């Protein structure tokens, strides 16, 4: 697998031979987003004590600007305001200016985003917030244009007004900020009363299904009209809901909603048909014109959703898409250390020239480019059709471009085509009078030639920061897809990712996960000092990845590390009063709100993932307290689960897992023997959302036998690999035949014995 080499940052940070007129402290940082602002005429500080001390000493308000390196409007605000000498001077003279990468410090971002949403009714990035020297927010917003525009004040006017208010009306500003902060503390508290139980799973799951069905868009799938996000958490819930409601009309409808959405996304322009992977979201309801940035967390969750759809339906399309996503990640988002990079930008310089970056330039095509590239006549095709004719018909390429003006407000895609599958291969074959095999061959060779051309275009900026949480999600993806497809290369890549996490993002001396590490100038892995300590999602997503890796490879050392990490997560983040986990370490005094993420959005909430992790680990370790913790966590969120379960579909899955109790599938055998592999492949070929898979080779000293003494009594029958399926400590009679195991897992036991 070749590794990625993306261009560095947009606008001011791109390295060039001309010396920079300005350089600020951000030049010493490693975050690609902070480095993009290292040559602004603004006296930027990174988030930290030096900036806080200066604000206190000079009694100045803090201007906090938050974004991330692949954020389009962050680039716009930088170009318009932060590169402007006059605005830069106003900022530097009157404020202590702090730049923050929200992906490095999601805890700080969440606190001030909660404030901005509460005070302005909306949020987003770039986020602009003004704070007192003791970090309390008093005014906030998002993007500001540089100068006044109609009735909308420009950034310069906003700064002037805040300076006047700070001079003349400071006490009012501070007290209204304090009032809002106190209200937010009360309003964001998520706690369970002592002894409270979680809500009833079937009721919550039914309501979640009804709410999703209500927002479902039938023609193209997905939820709401536009913009449309992939929302893998919704799709995973729907498939899990089906698995326990297979015989009901609701269950069948849930499955149809999930599969139709996944199918339409795979055909749409949100899916990169030439260079694989998925863009962030679609600007229209037909998944056609995307916002072109590619995020690691989307690739990870979508790979899992697609491989799950393949388990459920047996359709090859879904497995192909899952492989296709991992091909993209292995090629373009992989570091040679085994880590994964964060994202690729939407904007890049057009191949036709010009210095101005454009949205989607790396991915779109004119009709004449396609014709020039694919001129060969296809043998036997009607009307001497060329490869280009067939390709353009199939992928909806038009002479005048296929992007409607309303999808292109800035005119960046005029005359361009975003590829979208318009016809089935069968219809395309019929239209040109050729065989299905011939169509597949023509389209595959055309895509390969176009991929080759794309490698020579200027690449979009690559955010080469490596985050523990997103690497944990990606670990799950490689482990799960590799297990289902029995693909050794994917499983080896999963092991490489786990070793990377342990080597570079685990501080063994302090026993903490680190949030991030970085790619150095010579492709080495670098760390900042002091490094950023991990947050709740870093622990939760890695633990989940390690459990998935254990089930894919049966190597107990990863189970053991998952147990250690869960113990550390409990010590650092558990709320002993109200149940559930805080997002960040409650002992950090610079983070003003102790929040618990209560939404499964673009990424699942770490509490949702933890609820399932605790349940799985309680089965692997025999620790009853982890089962209790999982219940306390779900009880803490019971109000939200009962009222708006659509906000927490991943947590509803955890609630269902608790209700339906996990099956323990125990395989006894020799780890790498073919008969063991046969039973393992059977388990992995099925979508069994409510199971834990265990392996024992009969060694009483092994990790699992030490924790689960009952495993020692399970043995191979007649010297061949043997499976037991247990629920509530009741086990079936042992089976050695993979088909018999398959029947047991799908239908339940014909007869059982109590262990």
UniProtKB/TrEMBL annotation:
<feature type="domain" description="Spermatogenesis-associated protein 20-like TRX">
    <location>
        <begin position="23"/>
        <end position="185"/>
    </location>
</feature>
<dbReference type="InterPro" id="IPR012341">
    <property type="entry name" value="6hp_glycosidase-like_sf"/>
</dbReference>
<dbReference type="InterPro" id="IPR004879">
    <property type="entry name" value="Ssp411-like_TRX"/>
</dbReference>
<dbReference type="InterPro" id="IPR008928">
    <property type="entry name" value="6-hairpin_glycosidase_sf"/>
</dbReference>
<feature type="region of interest" description="Disordered">
    <location>
        <begin position="1"/>
        <end position="25"/>
    </location>
</feature>
<dbReference type="InterPro" id="IPR036249">
    <property type="entry name" value="Thioredoxin-like_sf"/>
</dbReference>
<dbReference type="GO" id="GO:0005975">
    <property type="term" value="P:carbohydrate metabolic process"/>
</dbReference>
<dbReference type="InterPro" id="IPR024705">
    <property type="entry name" value="Ssp411"/>
</dbReference>
<protein>
    <recommendedName>
        <fullName>Spermatogenesis-associated protein 20-like TRX domain-containing protein</fullName>
    </recommendedName>
</protein>
<dbReference type="Pfam" id="PF03190">
    <property type="entry name" value="Thioredox_DsbH"/>
</dbReference>
